[in-house]
Amino acid sequence: MIDIVKIKKQSDEVFYAEGAIIAFAAADLEFLKQQTERNPRKRARLCTHRDVNDALHEMIIVNARDTYVRPHKNTRKPKSFQMLEGMMDVVVFDDAGNVVSATRLGPYGSGRASYFRLHETRFHTLRTLTALGIFQETTRGPFVLGDTVFAAWAPEDEDRAACENFLRRMDADVAKLLPSPTLVRH
Asked: What pLDDT does 3 receive?
């Protein structure tokens, strides 16, 4: 029998798993899904590293469809995503805000890429295409607030109308790069 992870709340979106051994089970995923639904920004993450100072940061993240993740880059930090459930696009931009690539991720066995890695610092965002996108993100620590650079050409989260317009424009650019429709409704 797998024990449920002991979870400590950091904020409405961020939780930490506690203990010397972390085993993520279905009940833990249900907890994250519930937090995603309760959260105004429709996302939640469970950090499995001990704190912001750890050298390696691993997180299980749940984003709802149409969650806006403001394009950003993480200075001096590689980053990877492994899709566990659902589908999402990883969209990469140049410094002027032009879409330069889009990779559609699905879970292993879906026929899509299930893993994505950014070796270099680049502006990027995540676009959840199914009701929920569940993935693991891994990056180098420690977390330093100034290491995340938000794109000046992308709206802030609080401006919902501007975010929706940005996503529509981005979806049109991504549709030119990917052979199937950007949003998947199930």
From this structure: 55
